[in-house]
Structure formats: C-alpha cells, structure tokens
Amino acid sequence: MDDEVLTTLKILIIGESNVGKSSLLLRFTEDMFNPEQQLTIGVDFRTKKITVDGNTVKLAIWDTAGQERFRTLTPSYYRDAQGAILVYDVSNVKTFNKLETWLNELDTHSTKSNIVKMVVGNKIDKEHREVSREEGMKFARRHATLFIESSAKTRDGVQCAFEELVQKIIQMPGLWERHGDAIQVSEEDAGAVPSCVGWKCSVI
Amino acid sequence: MSEDVENDFHHVDFTVASIWESFIKSLEEVIFEWKLPQSKRVSPLKRGDIEKAVWDKKTKKEKLSFAEVNFTITRYILKDPGAGVTSPLEDETGDEDKVQALEDIMCFENDFLPQKMWLSSMGNVGQHPHPLAVWYGLRDFVIIAPNHDAVISSETRVKLLLSSLYIAVNNTNCSVPIFIQIHRASDQFYMGVCDGKEVRVDFEMVYLKRAPQHCRYLPGLLDVFKTKIASPISLEQILLSVQFTYILRDWTSYKWTQQPPDFEFLQGETIGVTELGRLPFGATSDPVSELYLYATWPKLVDSAVTDGESYSDFEPSKAPHWSVQVRMADQPACLLSDYFEEFLQLCHCKRNMKDLIGDLMECDSSGIDISTSLSAITEPRVPTLSQVLKRNKTRPKAVVRDGAISHEHLMHMLYFLFPDAADGGVKPYPETWGNSEETKQLEMGNMKTVPVDSLVWRLSIVMSHVLSTLGAVRAAAQLWYEFCGEMLFRWDKGILIPGVPPGFPDHRTCLLNQKLQMLNCCIERRLNRETLARKTSVELEKLSSGVSRISVPCKNSDDEDEFFDCSAEPTGGEGGGGGEEAAAAAGAGPSRPGGGARRKQKHSLWNQPVGRLYKYGNLRLLKTGEHLYVPVTQDPSPKTEDQILEDVDVMVHLGTDAHAAELRARIMSASLLSDMESFKAANPGAILEDFIRWYSPRDWIEEEGIDEYGQKKGSLSPRMQIRGNVWVDVWEAAKPVPARRQKRLFDDTREAEKVLHFLKTQSPAQMAQLLLPTLLHACLVRLMEEERAELPDVMPTIQHIVKQAVRLGQQGNTAQDLPRYEDLSKEMTSVEEVIAQFKSLEHKFSPSGGEQSPELQAFLSHLMQNTQVDVPEGPRGPIGMKIRCMFAEAQKVAQMLSEYDLADSSEETWNSPFATNFPQPHKRHFIMRTHAKRPSTYSIACPQRLSAILQKDSFRLAGCFTQDITFQ
User: Considering the entire predicted model, what is its pTM?
Assistant: First the structure.
C-alpha cells in the first residue's frame, strides 16, 4: 500500500501543558478519548495515513511535552517539520497568552522557513470558556496561521484540523518532496508551480 | 521565429514539362503563398534598425527541386521595430512604382551594420544579421539554397536558375529580391534578382581570396563600378561610404591580469595574513582579447578623396566617426572560480588520508591516538602545533618531513587559524559574530555555513589556498591532519578553540562548526568540573575536619517523613545562603560548593539540603512548611544535528504502539529523574506534589481552604494520580542527589572523543564536503566585494546563487548535491568573468582610478554588452585619445620587434606614412552608390550600388545593378 502514499509529512503538536495535545493526537490517530491521558514526557510519536483531495499522505506526528523544563529537550525534534499545530485550552486564557512564546519557539527551531502553522483552540466542550472564538481567530489572522476550534473529547474539529493542515502543506511548493523523488521540488519562488512534480498546485 | 508552412495538398500539373518550368511553377506557388507581391512599402530605415530589430525567418523545405537538387527557400524579413510587424507606409502618393529593395540599398542609414560575429558556440552559422542585409542594406529578401551538401557551382546551372528566378518574379510581380546560394554555404556567395516594376535588378557578387592588383585601392574599385554600370552617358556623382576596421590585440601597458597569491614571495615580508584570509579574484589572462576600431567616413564624393599606395585620405585619426567593439576572451582562467573548481574536485577525491599522508601519520602514531586521550599526558613525539607555537621560535624537534607544505607555511596558516597561540601581531577573531550588512541584504545569513571570519570560515579559505597553490591534495590532507591534531591538543590541555561562536551547537551553521562548538562545550564543562572538583575537595577537607567527631550513619535516605530540625520562618542567613548559591551557580555552572556546610546546624548531616538555586516564589513544602527551592539541575545536553537525527531515528524505530510510547517515555525520563533527584536534594522532605507545583504547575489543582502554612490547599490533577504513571514511578525511584553528584547526562569526555574521532576519520573528500558550503559562502562574499553597479546582471545572478546555496544547505547532503554545486560554480565563473571583463575595460579606458564621467560610464557599459559602441567625439574625444594611445603603443612595440620585417607589407601594401600609429586595417569596406541611365541614353536613371570588402585573405564585391526594361 505504501506505493500509494504521496509523501510523508512531519507534523508537530506544541503548546502549554494540559491543553490536550496528546488527547488531540489520540483522537485523531485512534479515534479514542482517554480522560486519564498520561502526561507526555519529552516527546512522543505517532503515525497515520490520511487522504486529502485524493492524495494519500503519511503523517508522522510528534507530540511534545508542554512543561517549561522540557523545552531544552523537545526543540531538537522540530527539525524538518512541515506543519505545526499550536494548541491552547479555550477554558484557560493563560494557555492562550503563551501562544506567542510557542510561535517564537517554533520560528527559532524550525528549519523550514515556510512551515505551515495552525492554531487550535481545544476543549470547546467545556462550559466555562475564557477565550472566545473571535479572539482565537484574531490571533491566527495576525500571525497568518490556520485556525480551528476543537474538542478531543467530542471529536469536534479534530479530523478537520489535520485535513486542513495537510491540504495547505501539499499546496505549498517546495515544502515537501514526493516519495522516491531524487530531486527536490524547486523551492525557488514561492509563486512557482513545481512543474517537475506533475501535481496540481495552487498558490496561497 | 521560424515557421514551417506546410501545404496539405500537392497538386501535380501535367501541362508543364521541363524541369525548369516545374521549378518556376513551384517557386511561384511559394511566392503566392507567402504573398510576396502584395508586400507593402514601409517607412524608411533609421540607423540601427536592421541591427537591433527582430528578424523574422520563414522556411520551406523540400518543395522546390531542380535537376534532382532539392532546395530550401527561406525568407528573411525585418520586423518593424516600432510596431512589431511591418506597417505599411501611410502616404503612398505617387510613389507606387518605387521598390522597397531599391530604396533600401540606397539608404545610408544602415551602412556598415555591425555583425554579431562571436556566437562562438554556434559556429559561423549564427551570424546576425544575415550578411546579405549587411552588404546590401536589405530588410526583406528570400534565399533559395540547395539542401544538405548539394552545391551549385557550374555557370550554366547558375544562369539557368537565375533565369528561372527572373521569370518567376516577373510572372508574379514579386518585388522582394530573391537570391540563390552558390558554392558552399560557408562561402556566403549569393546571386539574385529582383523585379523592380520598370527596372530589373541584378545582384551580383565577386569573391576572391586575394584582391586583384588593380582593385586594391579606391580608384580601382571605382573603375570596376563604372565599367560594370557601363552607362552610355557620363555618370552622376558617385557617393561613397567608407569604413576601415583596425584590431588591437596587444594591450601593452593596458593589460589587466591577476596573479594567484604567491606565498613564497610574501612570507619573507610579513605573515601573509591578509592573503591567507582572502580569496583571489580575477582573470589570469586579459579577459578582453581584442578591440575593434571602426573608422567611418560617411557620404563622401568620389572626386574629393585620394586613396592609393603612397597616400590616402583615409587616415583613421581623421575619420569623422569612430566606433569600437571589444571581443572577450573565451573562458579566461579566473582565480576565484578555479579555486572553487579545485575544491569541488577534492570533494570527488577517492583517496584516503593514509594514502596521502600515511608517512606523516606513522611518525606521529605513538603520540596521536585520539581514542585514548590519556596519552595526552605524555608528550607526543611530534609536537602539536600549539606546543610548537608556544615554544616560540625554538626549532621544532621534528620538522614535517615529507609534507607538501613547508614548515614555515604551515606555521603561518596555523597562526592565522589559531591566533590565540601567538603573542600578538596576527589577526584575532572578531569579538562578536554578526552578519555583515551585505550578507544580510542578500539573505546570505540563511546559508547553512558559519559566521564570516570564524574558524571554519578561515579554514575553508586556507584549505582552498593550500589546495590550489601550495601543494594540492596531499597538502590539503596535511593541513586537515594538523587541524585535527590541534583540536586534540586543545581538548587535552583544556584550551578553548578560538573563532567558534559560543554556546551550544547552532544547527543553523554547518556540521563542522557544530562539531567544534560541541568540542568547546565539552572543554568548557570539563574545565568547570575540574575547578569545581578542586574547590570541593578543599571544602570537604574543611567540612570533614569540623564534623569528624560525629559518627555519621551512612544513610542515603529518600524517606519523606524524616524529621528535620528546622524553623518555620525563613532566617536571613538561609535566604542569603540561597542567594549566594544562586550567584555561585551563575558563575560556576552545574553545581556549587559548600552549600551543605553552612547549613549544617539546621539539618541532620545525612539530609542536608544541597544544590539550591533560588526560592520558588512563596511556595512552601506541603509537609514541612520549608521554603520550596528550585534546585540546581544538570545543564541540558548540547547536540549536533547528526546526533539529533540519530535520536529521532531511534524514536521512530520504536514504533507507534502503547508499548513504544512507554519506552520513549522511559528514555525521555532520564532528565526528569535527574531533575527530581536534584529537587529532592534541595528540598528535603518534599513530596511529588511539591515537585509538580514547580515542574508542571497546571497539574496542581488548587482548592478551597488554606493549609497550615498559609497556602491554598490543592491536589494533583487526575492524570497525575493515575496509578503507575511514569511520574510517580520516577519520583519513587529518585534519590536526593544534587546535580553535581549525579551521573552526568552529558558525558563531556565521551562526547569530545566522539567529535575528535569524527574529525580524524574524515576522508579528504568528506573533509572537503564539510568545508564546501562555507567556501561557497566565502566566494559569494568575495564576488559581492567586486560587484559593480555598472553591471546590472551581476547582482541578480549572485542573488540566484545565494538562493540555491541556501536551499542546498537546508538539504544538507553535500555529497549528493555535488552536481548542483558544480552548476553554481559555473554561474559564479560567469559572474567573475563579467566583472573581470569590466575591470579590464575600466583599466584600459579610465584615467587611473579617477572619477569617471557619465559619458565614459555609459561607454563602458555598452561595450560590456558586446555591441558596437560609438566613440563620443570620435578620435578627438578623451576616449578616442586613449584608444589612439593604445594603438600607438602597440605599434611601437610591434615595430621594435620587427623593425625591418616587411613580409606583411608585401602582401597588403596599403601603407601610409601618416598612419604609423595604426596597424594595417583589418578590413576596408567601401560602399559606392550612384544613379545611372541603363542600358540606353533614354532609360530612366536607376540606382546602382557596389560594396567592396577588402581583407587580408578575402576580397568581396557585392554589386547591385539596375537597368530599365521598358526603355531599352
């Protein structure tokens, strides 16, 4: 089945601790929710195949620990990621306020300049909300990222978040290379359609 | 712009019989198909039109045949420069009968069209514009040429073809001249006809290897012209246009070349620091090979000029109009590109270090064995360089025996690379590593290399020097070997490596730099550890002397319920102690000495709080009420990118199931364990809840109510309370051990040895690949230094190279990307060539480095575009004067060399006493024009033209003669 896979994409999930990063991942990969999800230590890793617009890609998703102390450890794993999901907890404004720090962290350590970023407001199932959808959108717009709200518990927005991210990455010229391609897609001009790939691309 | 027009049907007409009749027939078909008779007259040509505008070329193959020879018919037509397509002339009042071709041949504006003759890659074929346009000033004509190797040579056949042509054009009323190619294509011999309504136009040609005796000068040529016209009545005035071409090949003192740096010469004077740190630039031979001077006399009257063996009016310095063109040397050797090329070659080198410098390594082998750093204690037999340098001027014991680099050179290089080893006088490294302005501007900062002028930067340049000028591959291997030796020496002796940006391996820099940063980290840690160990041993002595009378049960306890004799209130001394510790931590690194000693009265000896960094806010331990201290923890481990890749691989290979996740957590928990142990050591009596409040505050859920120490009550988050979760497990396993006594998470000795091993085991090719990106960066910076605003194409090319280089760096696989680097090398060569050409021209035309007038600037940049450029004010302007000087100097040299050698002048005896400052003209081109009544006295006066082109080994007359066909 591997030959059907267009490429493998590396995705990061980052954000403050206890915002539901691992739960999002578990919901996406296993379609499960564990209210007693353990704390991640350092980094964890999962894979999943996903089909977007008829293209099947394999996702290698790196889940990271949110604790401050682990930040000396985790950025090593940011290398070569094509996409990043920045998670905050809509019921805790502090986790939202920290997003800026996480974006900086990402910019400092990611090796791809055009990495696709998505801001995800998680735990929308909670009744008590501290961050409105509008605030989240405003932040995402200011930093030119994708935005979605989700709940790992109720499944809301989870699948959609990953799909949208993958779609955007595939559209991004030069960010990824096709399996078995010896020559990397030209990264030269952001506007150029990589003709050698023979893939339909649109410019964002 | 060729366009094949294929006819779908081919009808056969049996009413035509002979071969030439069918030839005429098919020719007419083409003429009609191309609508030649309908072609409209267009506006008169302006100067430069034929040269600059775009030519349209229409070709038709295999349609025409004559006596089993197939012909290709091609139409050349000039697109109107203004409108893009030929636009008909607006006013056609009364000029109906005029013929475009006749207008064009009499038009002065396009005399002496410069031909782009240097499309070397295309051979002679690529001449532009077509020679017929040059000889006749035509802008629309058709050529019929035999296909392939067929050659039309016999006179009868030529006549037959011409007659057929004439019949065809007459039948069709086609006024576009049609030519037949005679002899070989390379002879460029064409004859043609044109139906000029009431006149018939013949295009004739003479082409000889040598000019006949009587045709060598203008009077003879005029005679030929007059005789050929053979008008029954005396001719009108003949108008002349004349152009003489001179070539300057010997630049004498105007030569511009660059020599590779000569270290032999330099070393006597100074330590060649400037030369060592600088890549050479420029062409080793003059990149401008020839200068063509065109002296032009437009519109002269035949009776007013004299031209002959003994005297000629055509003295170039008196010509009213001058223009020049330069010919650039084909791929001159350029120093910078050659350096880079050679480095690329090294990247492909198949030989190993042992091959190259095995003898050298053998003689060192007892001393340098990187895997056993213990041997550092014993002096190696061949001293490492720093030792030699330190010894200062005493001769080293063992001179590098057969190394390709002399000892002296090697010393200079090493002083340059490691300036801290010298007492002064050499170039130290900059204090800070920022990118210079120009690198920022070009995003060169994004290149995965090193900061400008850091150690790896210098090493790449020095390596390049060594490779190109100081002994090639063997010398390069030797330098690398010495470099590795120096690294080992520094690790052994604990001397930091200079010129390496401080801090952890920076993954935005190249791998070699990361390795050196790693080595520096190791050296630093080791030094800290050792100072600390010394201090601690002193303190311990003091301590043990103080408490020796108490018999201490050696119990290492993690029992949280241990009783402590401590007060609830913080004491000033304790706070101060904490602060001191914090200060000490900042200064000394991973741990600080003596914390325990001072506090011995407050805790039982076996449970001293140790390794406190600072108080964590107002938090107090839940069980004891003691302040919660942030412990001193182990520093994070520096890692180079290849190590991280390995780590990632390990993680990925574990798989994705629950078991794998747990395994990963266990691997990752090493640092958690270390932190917990430090925490326990700093906070005796602490429980997991205390730790979590510091480490993961979001897992501490505050509740209503105040505990006995005045803090909010709370509990662990549900996920922390899961039984058997890693955090609880690790907490239970953790013993109170301060960071400095823990097993090191980062083993500096092992890591340093890894780096040294890595360096030592690089093959010459791998070594070159490590340095290649940095050398490329250095080359680009060098190009930027030489870049000239006058050359608009240079910056975009450099920018393009930078972009590519940034991308290559990101891919980070130099070995695989070598072909790409080769492409970049070619681009760099072209940039260097262009800059060298410009500098050469500047050297020739610019008054020694002074201010350039805008006129000169424009002149130079036009010359660079390889076009013919008018010399402002001709021979009398400042540029003209310069050119005259150049010619004069070259003539002087030539005359000195062959004072009485008249071999040349016997061939071409155009020798004027007034032209001694100029060589023999390379080419003389005369255009004669007049109107004459032909063939009889009552014929109308029709235009006549003859172009004569005289060169040393060719003589060509291209005539165009018209005669009245109505009034014969």
Answer: 0.74
